[in-house]
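In the lab's daily routine, each protein ends up as an entry in a very long ledger. A line of letters takes care of the sequence, but it says nothing directly about the fold. The three-dimensional part falls to structure tokens, numbers that each stand for a local backbone shape. The outcome of that step, for a single protein, is printed below.
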Amino acid sequence: MKNKYKYKWPLVGNRQITEFLSRTIDNQNLGSTYIFNGPDNLGKTTLANHFARIILCQKHETDKILPCGECGSCQSFTSAREAGDQTFMHSDYYILKKQKDKKNISISQVREFIRALSMSSFMGDYKIGIVKHADTLSIDGANALLKTLEEPKQKVIIILITQSAGSLPATIVSRSQILEFKPVPAGVIYDFLLNEHKATRSMAKNLSRLSLGRPALAVKFMQNKEFHDRYLASARIFMDFFKQNINERFSAVEEIVRGASGQEAAVLAGRALEVWQGVLRDILLINFEQAERLQHQIEADQLNVIRRQLTSAKILAVLKEIKNAFRLIEANVNPRMALEYISILI
């Protein structure tokens, strides 16, 4: 069925989600609460922002592209983007996120968020609130938000962005429409980097593999060389463990979290563990003769050397302990100690 309006969604892959959102706008069947669920760097926040721009656009004209980019609402978003302002983008659009170096979104933040959404719309239409990393809501904050979801206000939409909807209270999930974002095939990301970002073929091939189905991460690798090099350095730190003694491994771990503390150290350790998971997954793929699917294709030679030192059973055991290390860090165990423990295991 032909859409009433035209859309140019800024999302790579996950077409089923943009098709669903297009139908809800066409049919004026907007929900009061959505959960955008899936791994980071799939474009969940970008899509939520674009969805909000379409809803708040003041020129909903048949056969016109939405958002129009010309009305007062659209100009508010454009001005904020050009100014690099991510805290205030629109008078009827609110973003709630965890404060830097805090573990959770606090109840006081949630209350302020709810208060803002409860006020009359400045432009006389919808008000939209985005909760980034909603799985970091404190228990009290989640309960406060639940009260609002139980009695939704007319023309107020809340979008919860999370990596794991299962970590949210079941009472919140049951009152929301869940949109599942899935990793995007490497071939789709490859074409995207070639066509939209003018990457070379070799770069597009490497980054589409390295991003492991996450288009936004592939773009970040391409645009931020320091970030890309840091990511690969973390993989090489892990691969070097296999030719180092304990003291050398501990020194390498210290470099990962040097100068960081609290939540910053936890984030750095979590990123390292994610990379190490990827390295072990690649070795498993080689063991099962699936080398064409390697994430770290650029390190294939080194991975082949390491695989001779590890059985598949050993790899699975270490992957299990890495999963446990994530939980320990979440429970406030010293991040450096968690990384050191994994470095000993292999």
Observations:
- The chain has three domains: 6-180, 185-223, 225-345.
- The domain at 6-180 is CATH 3.40.50.300 (Rossmann fold).
- The chain has a mean pLDDT of 93.
